[in-house]
Amino acid sequence: MSYVLEFVHDLSLKDFNSAQAFIDSELERYYAEEAEPAPAFEAFIRGITKKFPDDGEPEDSPWADAPIRGNFKSKIGMVSLVSVDYPEVYKFIILGANYIGLSVLDPQLEVLYHPHATEYPRPPQHVIDRLTALQNAREPREKRR
Question: CB-based contacts of 16: which residues, under 8 Å, 6+ apart?
């Protein structure tokens, strides 16, 4: 089962429900058109795929649906992680997206990570515990090769 994150480039959406409603209103257009990603999405895609390539090497890739460029259209975007077992990818995605002005929605937790937030909503403790355990259990990439 993959773990989905959604993206919008609209700073007026200040909470999860309004951002999710916006995404829902754009889904029909998202699937119907072949629009190019907005410039902020292009910058985001370059940044995350530079650090975590989406070149089709499944044993090292966190992406469930590579290449990810096709998942970003004019107003919204989505990525699917293989699982939440990639806490460093999750954190990098959120911080990177927010840095360039994108809001990130985590529909599984019903959380919006807004670029102008002074603090992020705290995920439920069981999610924090799971991410911490996974991060502590993972070996560095160099040791796995």
Answer: 105, 110, 111, 112
Q: How far from chain centre, in Å, is Cα 27?
A: 17
Sheet containing strand 3-8, strands side by side: 76-81, 3-8, 103-106, 111-113
Q: What Rg value do the Cα atoms of the chain yield, rounded?
A: 15
Work out the widest C-alpha separation in the chain, in whole angstroms: 45
Task: Kindly list the averaged pLDDT for each block of 10 residues, start to end, along the chain of length 145.
Answer: 89 90 90 81 92 76 85 90 78 90 91 81 62 61 45
14-19's contacts with Cβ under 8 Å and 24+ in sequence apart are 14/112, 14/114, 15/112, 16/105, 16/110, 16/111, 16/112, 19/103, 19/105, 19/112
Q: How far is CA 137 from the centre of its chain?
A: 22
pTM: 0.78
Q: Are 2 and 14 in contact (CB under 8 A)?
A: no
Task: Determine the distance from the C-alpha atom of residue 98 to the mean position of all C-alpha atoms in its chain, rounded to a whole number.
Answer: 10
